[in-house]
Amino acid sequence: MSQNTEKLQIIEREIRKCEKCSLCKTALQAVPGEGSSTAKVVFIGEAPGATEDKTGRPFVGRAGNLLEKLLEKINLSREEVWIGNIIKHRPPKNRDPLPEEIKACRGYLENQLAVIKPSLIVTLGRFAMNHFYPEGKITKDHGKLIKLHNFNVFPVYHPAAALRNRSFAEALAKDFLNIPNVLTELSKNEKSTNNTMMAKPLL
Ligand code: URA
């Protein structure tokens, strides 16, 4: 097992016994997240829904089916990416997470991302986008690459919103098709930064 996988498993064990907020009392189980521990791209949603709560896995209900179809269109599988949420326990009746719940859960995702070190974080929906980029507006900022000091964030509409609204579905599909281009651009930049760093001692 790789060191990254081991580190993620340690965080997962902490999440599974978390009692930092009251959501653990109403949820059936925690949903820590899953996928490649060295993923170049991660997908972050809001919070588990009913199917995720039953299975302990992220995005396995209707929104998850749509996410998988969108991933297939850009030749990515669930195994190649990492999928998680900002909130690890299902809020009752899928209500919006409360600020104190988001705050209590914050450290887990931070630690997971510190292990995975993705090139790109695709945020699914407004909550996930505002977690990284509080001033963002999903209607204006979806499909734009936001370069923050520690992360590259690419906000898109939530698949559940796309299932309810045709124009969100079209925007989501279009933004998804751009993800490979964004990743190529980022890897070019990463390579040129690495070359610059390697060239320095020779100057
Ligand atoms: N919606 C989310 O935001 N996350 C899930 O895991 C499932 C549905």
TrEMBL record:
<dbReference type="InterPro" id="IPR051536">
    <property type="entry name" value="UDG_Type-4/5"/>
</dbReference>
<dbReference type="Pfam" id="PF03167">
    <property type="entry name" value="UDG"/>
</dbReference>
<dbReference type="GO" id="GO:0006281">
    <property type="term" value="P:DNA repair"/>
</dbReference>
<dbReference type="InterPro" id="IPR005122">
    <property type="entry name" value="Uracil-DNA_glycosylase-like"/>
</dbReference>
<keyword id="KW-0408">Iron</keyword>
<dbReference type="InterPro" id="IPR005273">
    <property type="entry name" value="Ura-DNA_glyco_family4"/>
</dbReference>
<keyword id="KW-0411">Iron-sulfur</keyword>
<keyword id="KW-0004">4Fe-4S</keyword>
<dbReference type="GO" id="GO:0046872">
    <property type="term" value="F:metal ion binding"/>
</dbReference>
<keyword id="KW-0378">Hydrolase</keyword>
<dbReference type="InterPro" id="IPR036895">
    <property type="entry name" value="Uracil-DNA_glycosylase-like_sf"/>
</dbReference>
<keyword id="KW-0227">DNA damage</keyword>
<keyword id="KW-0479">Metal-binding</keyword>
<comment type="similarity">
    <text>Belongs to the uracil-DNA glycosylase (UDG) superfamily. Type 4 (UDGa) family.</text>
</comment>
<dbReference type="GO" id="GO:0051539">
    <property type="term" value="F:4 iron, 4 sulfur cluster binding"/>
</dbReference>
<dbReference type="GO" id="GO:0004844">
    <property type="term" value="F:uracil DNA N-glycosylase activity"/>
</dbReference>
<keyword id="KW-0234">DNA repair</keyword>
<feature type="domain" description="Uracil-DNA glycosylase-like">
    <location>
        <begin position="32"/>
        <end position="177"/>
    </location>
</feature>
<protein>
    <recommendedName>
        <fullName>Type-4 uracil-DNA glycosylase</fullName>
        <ecNumber>3.2.2.27</ecNumber>
    </recommendedName>
</protein>
